[in-house]
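Try this one yourself first.
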């Protein structure tokens, strides 16, 4: 009988001390216990390693710092390579898992052996943990309170037509190690790196999608996705065209045109959101007690 953990949670981090403790606590407090937590610290300089080591839990491993800072996909890949579990989840250092996330998704993958990926919806929160959107993701692929098994081609078409990654960020999915592609990540994509990764895992397989909200994704005007917002529609257009070549029986040229239009609209909405959040942060600092004292 194997003594290895069934589930590996990989937490890639670069100078993420502010939110890392809450992230790790949400992973270690899972109702499903047969896990390991692999922290891939990308040469942080803010005391991140100390935060990791403050968790006296034998399930936690922190990888040695690389000789020099790695690219985001290289650091993600380093964490996955060190993982031992049959099922793998990436959780970025500022995101959170609901307590039953791993229990629900592990049970789904055990129940549906043809599925290599379990997906869920997520809650959107801001830098102060305020809830911006209570439930996001999966589009019309599931009904409220429902679950559905979807093949990779159907999912590629649904995402293309929606102009978005309906599966969401890495914390939203749990993946079988046996389905991991080679190479893990395609260097052509920045904003869509996770989206393309999921679809290559699903090339000839199914996903099981659950409409429950099982994690929180944090948005901040300072994070990488905000920096990439201006180029995301252009990148998604290229990815949708690539999907039409990969799945010609599912994704058509009209699907690509529709998805590109919707991606542009969504990119504009994200830029507005990030602008609003930057303005709100400036106002909050201006109203802070420290700021008022300094003006007196």
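Now uncover the answer:
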């Amino acid at each position: 009988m194997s003594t290895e953990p069934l589930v590996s949670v990989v937490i890639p981090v670069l100078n993420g001390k502010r939110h890392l403790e809450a992230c790790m606590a949400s992973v270690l407090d899972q109702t499903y216990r047969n896990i390991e937590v692999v922290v891939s610290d990308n040469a942080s300089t803010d005391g991140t390693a100390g935060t990791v080591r403050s968790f006296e839990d034998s399930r936690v491993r922190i990888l040695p710092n690389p000789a020099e800072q790695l690219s985001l996909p290289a650091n993600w890949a380093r964490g996955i390579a060190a993982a031992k579990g049959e099922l793998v989840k990436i959780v970025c250092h500022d995101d959170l898992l609901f307590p039953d996330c791993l229990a629900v998704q592990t049970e789904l993958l055990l129940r549906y052996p043809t599925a290599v990926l379990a997906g869920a919806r997520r809650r959107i929160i801001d830098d102060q943990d305020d809830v911006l959107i209570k439930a996001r993701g999966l589009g019309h692929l599931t009904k409220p309170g429902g679950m559905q098994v979807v093949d990779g081609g159907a999912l590629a078409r649904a995402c293309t037509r929606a102009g978005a990654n309906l599966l969401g960020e890495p914390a939203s999915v749990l993946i079988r190690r046996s389905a991991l592609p080679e190479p893990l990540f395609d260097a052509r994509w920045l904003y869509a790196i996770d989206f393309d990764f999921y679809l290559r895992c699903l090339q000839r397989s199914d996903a099981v999608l659950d409409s429950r909200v099982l994690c929180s994704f944090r948005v901040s005007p300072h994070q990488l996705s905000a920096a990439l917002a201006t180029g995301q529609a252009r990148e998604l257009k290229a990815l949708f065209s690539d999907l039409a070549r990969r799945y010609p029986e599912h994704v058509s040229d009209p699907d690509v045109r529709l998805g590109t239009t919707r991606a542009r609209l969504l990119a504009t909405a994200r830029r507005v959101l990030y602008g609003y959040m930057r303005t709100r942060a400036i106002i909050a600092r201006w109203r802070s007690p420290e700021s008022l004292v300094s003006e007196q």
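Discussion: The domain at 7-220 is CATH 3.90.550.10 (Spore Coat Polysaccharide Biosynthesis Protein SpsA; Chain A). Residues 14 and 205 are 33 Å apart (CA to CA).
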